[in-house]
Specification:
Layout (H helix, E strand, L loop, with lengths): L1 H24 L3 H6 L44 H11 L9 E2 L3 H7 L1 H9 L6 H16 L7 H4 L2 E15 L5 E2 L4 E2 L12 E14 L2 E12 L7 H15 L24 E15 L2 E7 L3 E2 L17 E7 L2
Helix pairs in contact: 3-6
Length: about 325
């Protein structure tokens, strides 16, 4: 228990250091945001704040959106079900539903035609059009900081993306063994949960400079203790796995070794800090190169065999995605 406590405190210190570094690095961002404004495009008459003319006779500068980095939208964001609803209503058709996360700039690009479609149907608007307009307005409001003109916000800066606290109360005995008996809560980054009061408090943000970006999201997680599976149930489940998973037999006891995924009791209370996401990325030739602990989702539905999702804690990976 002492070792577990020290590990929890170490993670908490690392998490606090990472978030503090995110704030400290932002100290030089305003100067970066002011530099290079002479290369900005000029706003065309009658166009919105996010529409800029580009002079094709000169080379692309760092102020052009096509050479600037953009953070990924976490896969547990409200954005994805909202865009899926727009897709179902027929107002957006250029998103990859089975491949997430999306960057903020790719979402902005996907919504370019949505506004025009809604305007074309205003004369014959119905409940579907009104619903689509409400979703579209909410998404545009979320992206408003990215649509103020390239050199105003994209050249360099920092942003606290979210600060949140989730309270979860569970009555009864929840399942937390998806391989054998199932899980009460899915697609939740493998957060701990038990009968009683559970809390997850965290923050996320990023620092950008031209085509480079640093993103961090961390949480403090707390869950109560639990009785867990009894020894008899644990042995029964382990015995079932012997033939399926080639589980080895402990020669000392003659019983199968217990899998770590089986929640054998008693389970102690959980209070620790966890890094949900932390990655560095660079945008180059319409590709996003990133390394770190980051979201990944492959599959059109909420669940699927052999598909990446946020049903477990993120892993560290080197990733490349094509950004449209």
């Amino acid at each position: 228990m002492k070792s577990s406590g020290r590990l929890g405190r170490t993670r908490a210190v690392c998490l606090a250091t990472l978030l503090a570094g995110l704030v400290l690095v932002s100290g030089g961002a305003p100067a970066a945001g002011q530099a290079g404004t002479a290369g900005a495009g000029t706003a065309a008459p009658g166009t919105g704040a996010g529409q800029w003319d580009s002079d094709s006779s000169r080379p692309e500068t760092v102020c052009e959106p096509s050479v600037l980095d953009s953070p990924y939208i976490p896969v547990d964001s409200w954005v994805y079900p909202a865009v899926l609803r727009l897709y179902s209503l027929g107002y957006v058709d250029s998103v990859y539903l089975g491949m997430r996360p999306w960057t903020r700039s790719s979402l902005e690009h996907a919504l370019e035609e949505t506004g025009e479609r809604i305007e074309d149907e205003e004369d014959d608007a119905g409940p579907a059009t009104d619903e689509a307009k409400g979703i579209y307005d909410a998404l545009i409001h979320m992206l408003s900081d990215d649509m103020q003109g390239p050199c105003l916000t994209h050249q360099g800066g920092t942003r606290v993306e979210s600060v949140y606290s989730v309270a979860r109360a569970i009555s009864g005995t929840p399942l937390r063994d998806s391989y054998h008996l199932g899980s009460t809560i899915i697609n939740d980054y493998g957060r701990p949960y038990e009968n009683g009061f559970n809390n997850y408090s965290g923050a996320s943000g990023y620092v950008s400079a031209g085509r480079f970006l640093l993103y961090a999201r961390g949480e403090f997680q707390a869950a109560p203790s639990a009785a867990g599976y009894s020894a008899a149930l644990t042995q029964t489940l382990a015995a079932e796995d012997v033939g399926l998973l080639s589980i080895a037999i402990n020669p000392a006891t003659g019983l199968p070794y217990i899998q770590t995924t089986i929640p054998t009791g008693p389970i102690g209370a959980t209070t620790h800090g966890r890094v949900i996401e932390a990655y560095a990325s660079a945008h180059y030739l319409n590709h996003e190169f990133s390394f770190g602990k980051q979201d990944d989702w492959l599959g059109p539905g909420l669940g699927g065999g052999m598909a990446y999702s946020n049903n477990a804690e993120n892993i560290y990976s080197l990733d490349r995605k094509s950004v449209v």
